Task: structure prediction
Amino acid sequence: MDHEQNQGAALLQLLQLLWLLPHSWAAPEAPTPVWRDGLQNHTFLHTVYCQNGTPSLGLSEAYDKDQLFSFDFSQNSRVPRLPEFADWAKDQGDASAISFDKEFCQMMIQEIGPQLDGKIPVARGFPVAEVFMMKPLEYGKANTLVCFVSNLFPPTLSVNWQHHSVPVEGVSPTFVSATNGLIFQAFSYLNFTPEPSDVYSCIVTHEIDRYTAVAFWD
Result:
């Protein structure tokens, strides 16, 4: 009996952290959409999550594990991860379904979260950070540094950039997305013009346990 109760508590904790919804109480749970193109399968993943942390609420949409959009709940609009995705972000036909997801997820936190507090470990592993350039290196020409964070669970983090150990201002928002297996990843972007003496660092802090990962570009 204790074993069954522990399994049930674990399942509820997973529902608290990551809720994949079919957008309707009446609709049956649908499999992840997969499209066949020649010999390749493609997967579109729509993930809504909420938690007692920052961010408290999130939505990400990914195509073949490549994040396309996050969602700004304060503006009720999609946010493209890259400029080339901007036109696709304009469609708001599923706004009512997203609102349902939001309310249901927050209800789970309020009703079930207090019952599970302290019963199940809240962190799983440590985040891993790496930095690379979006375009090939050409000194003196504008480019973008990408800080990619993997092995992230739960998705509570802060990302900061430094140039020669001095904090950098004007960094773009951090984009968080879910992957298979209840693991999250994140992207942070820094526009810059590389010079031979440059040393940049991306500092990732996992807020739930204060673990810090640092990646460098030089």
